[in-house]
Amino acid sequence: MSNSHERVETATHDNMLECRGLTRVYQEGPQDLTVLDNLELTVAAGERIAVVGSSGSGKTTLLNLLGGLDRPTQGEILIGGRSIKGLSEAAIGKFRNQHIGFVYQFHHLLAEFTALENVSMPLIIRGQSRSEAAKKANILLERVGMAPRGEHKPGELSGGERQRVAIARALVTDPSLVLMDEPTGNLDQTTARQILDLMDEVAERSRSAFVVVTHDMAIARHQDRVLRLDKGRLAPDTTG
Ligand SMILES: Nc1ncnc2c1ncn2[C@@H]1O[C@H](COP(=O)(O)OP(=O)(O)OP(=O)(O)O)[C@@H](O)[C@H]1O
What we know:
It is built from seven helices and ten strands.
């Protein structure tokens, strides 16, 4: 299932993700709000980190920057050693499809397509045939316990089921970097456990780096490191 020819060049780079001096200031009328302040972060290939922090500490802001959905005020993000700073919107979109898997808090599944089509989509965009894509998508749906619901559209699925489809979609391309915002928020313990096992397997097989934002300390502790976002910077979590 390797797609090494499409993978970000990592031959000389064991750091899949690097943030250098990452700063995001929101301009709010007369007062600026500095949410990320010279943040530094390094995540190795195959490493999974959890990001915890109080509400409003900037976790979603950080994920949006890492996924190229927003641009930093200052600083730089390197994925597989490559800076995404100078990329145009179109180039970032392409880069995201090729190298990043994103699980948003609100799924963002395409309402008019079935679960199977939603999970197949990133592969079809990459140029795989429909049948090839559907085959791989089915394997992922199976892994998240959603294969029997593959022909259903998101509107016919529960919140937790949609979440599982979104996770399958994020992982189907074996991305270099996986960004997850509360991935197991809607899931019962058994299903959450299945998802954690799948994350372990993908990290190991594909050497993907994971950044998982969560309020759930059990999920956080399952990752290789737990970092706390506070006052715009990340530091090892000591609240445990
Ligand atoms: N587009 C924006 N314009 C101005 N301020 C913003 C914008 N987006 C977020 N903020 C502010 O930036 C701060 C960080 O928000 P963010 O959503 O990143 O926090 P969070 O840690 O994800 O919070 P939660 O855990 O509640 O989801 C908050 O004070 C928020 O009000």
